[in-house]
Each structure stands twice: as structure tokens, then as C-alpha cells.
Amino acid sequence: MRRLPRSPSGWTMAVFGVLAAVMGAVGLVAPDTLLTVMGFAPEAGSRRAEGDHTLVFLTASSMAALNMGVYYVLAALSDWKAFFRWTVPFRLLTCTVFTLAVITGRAPAGFLGVGLWEGIGAVVTGAALRLETRRAAHSGQVEVGVS
Q1: Which single residue of 5, 53, 110, 133 could bond 76 by disulfide (Cβ 3.0 to 4.6 Å)?
Q2: Confidence (pTM)
Q3: For 26-54, how does the pLDDT look when each residue is reduced to its tens digit (9 = 90+)?
């Protein structure tokens, strides 16, 4: 494993991974800060209504984001292009679901940024993978893990 990504697609994955890990860590350490960044109005003070499980779900999603971020960084450092390709359609699906949550009123407008972050990241990663495949084809190289 290298210390830095070795391909443009690897860099897109590393950047996304670091951002996901940071946001996950913020959600674990300062959940109200993460809620504010995502466009949700946190409850004033630390008192929540009985039965309000917002912090439980925020803890779970923040832990998932932290883990996912680490996976993305490790995949980037390994230049695991198959993994990069697998993420593109699922990140586009996430973009669609999150965008629809805003459009249908299930989430505040600020949450649209999360969907756009996923969508833009997927498009940039997909474009980088396509560019790398074309460069390899023109140079006569065979890329390992690219089908």
C-alpha cells in the first residue's frame, strides 16, 4: 500500500473518504454541529423529547460514515479500481434518494448538499476511471482490475 493515491480516480476516492471520515467523526463528537451543517435545526440545549431517537440514528450514521471513509481511503491507497467502479452507481443512487427526500419534504433544503456531494463525487470518480481506461488503451497498457 502506498502513502498517496497513484491515480486520478484514487485521488477522488481519497478525498471523498477523508471528507466522509471527518463528517462521521464530527457527528460522533459534536452531533448538533453535524445537524446544523446538514440543514437541520438542532434542539436547543441537550434536552430532547422522550422518544426522540435523533442522536441514536445520528450516532449510527456517523459511525457508518467514519468507517466508509476509512474504507475509501484504504481502497484509494491500494488503487483498487474495481471498488472505485462499484461505488459510482451506488453513490448516484444515494444522490437520487437524498435529493428526493428534499423534494418530497422529508428533509430540509440544506440536506440537498449531501445528495449533491454524493452525485458530484460519483460523476468525478466515473469520469476519472473512464479517462484512465482510455489512456491505458491508447498507450497499449493493460490496467489490472479494469474490465
Answers
A1: 5
A2: 0.84
A3: 999 998 888 888 777 766 665 677 787 88
